[in-house]
Amino acid sequence: MQPLAERLRPHTLDDYIGQQHLVGEGAVIRRMIEQKRISSFILWGPPGVGKTTLANIIASTLDVPFYTLSAVTSGVKDVRDTIEKARSNRFFNSNSPILFIDEIHRFSKSQQDSLLGAVEQGVITLIGATTENPSFEIIRPLLSRCQVYTLHSLERDDLLQLLESAIKNDVILKEKQIEVSETTALLRYSGGDARKLLNILELVVESQLSKDHITISDDIVTETLQQNPLAYDKDGEMHYDIISAFIKSIRGSNPDAAIYYLARMIEGGEDPLFIARRLVISASEDIGLANPNALLLANAAFDAVNKIGLPEGRIPLAEATIYLATSPKSNSAYMAINDALQYVGQTGNLPVPLHLRNAPTQLMKELGYGKDYKYAHDYKDNFVQQQFLPDDADGKQFWHPQDNPQENKLNELQQKRWGK
Prior knowledge:
There is one protein chain. By secondary structure, the protein is of the alpha/beta class. Helix content is about 50%, strand content about 10%. It contains 20 helices and seven strands. The chain has helices spanning about 5, 20-25, 30-35, 50-60, 75-90, 110-120, 135, 140-145, 155-170, 185-190, 195-205, 220-225, 235-250, 255-265, 270-285, 295-310, 315-325, 330-345, 360-365, 405-420; strands spanning about 40-45, 65-70, 100, 125-130, 145-150, 175-180, 215. β2, α5 and β3 form a beta-alpha-beta unit. The longest helix has 16 residues, at about 270-285. The radius of gyration is 31 Å and the shape is elongated.
């Protein structure tokens, strides 16, 4: 017997649930299907939101040859063989055969390259499905030949509609007495994934097959599943979204949000050293000179996590996260090095002033290397004015102190030293 999710896979747009921005009345993919003219595109979205189903609907609706490849099991030879079949099956003035590639992000660069000519010449119309950001996983030439359509996790109303349809219309479930008293846990565990919702429903029903009356409640769903299968792909789009939100919450001085995203990463199986490295970067980039201790604490957290690992490593990670989020912020060091790098890139290798150069040989001394250099420690307060930048860069300012207590002190000291 097929799984419930497969038995309920819709075959027409009228039965398709969700993604109304793409398949609703007047939406772009519905128009293409109705006009029977499909252009190459890539469907990007999380698992269980209808990417493969949409491709199957297109296949059953349009009267054109339809080929399917899985990037998990197919190689360059399979792609080329399929393209040759499509070339021989294309008739004069007819629509191009459609090639659907599931999980296209798993194709290597050479495999994606093998598609370019056929897509460009119209030998095939490509439909790809991916859970990963196409900007990262699809080569630019192929991406430029395809539209990218984003599919979203199913909304609450979509999931409830799917649940009702499953209980009423499935050939097996409609024969059983099923009472849905609560849906909170069912919706939470499914996480906007239609396939996961149907799999959970089927699992809960199977756990009560010995009963005449099947009940679906929050407690029963939770007891059946035992634990929440959190959606977190540490190698994919979710990985980038969560770490981005984590760092931006620290930068925005919101410790509660930062801790929340830290918990999401830990619970999702993220490498703790990856998190610790990002804390070290944030300590320098976002806190910097406003609180130099932040870098010390972030480094200490990295060392601690490296030594003890998880689960105990979550504690120094949390300590560093809260400390960084609540610290005063400054990116003056970050801006200074970026400004200096840009200047160096524009001006090249300006000559170092002679008095700052090292003079390990007699010839260098005769040429004036190191001549008239003033040793700072020989002067009052260990400071003496002299030129340090190259002649063409003299007077150039890269570090611009920001308005916080720590940098205000540093700025006052520099003004006292240099008189500016």
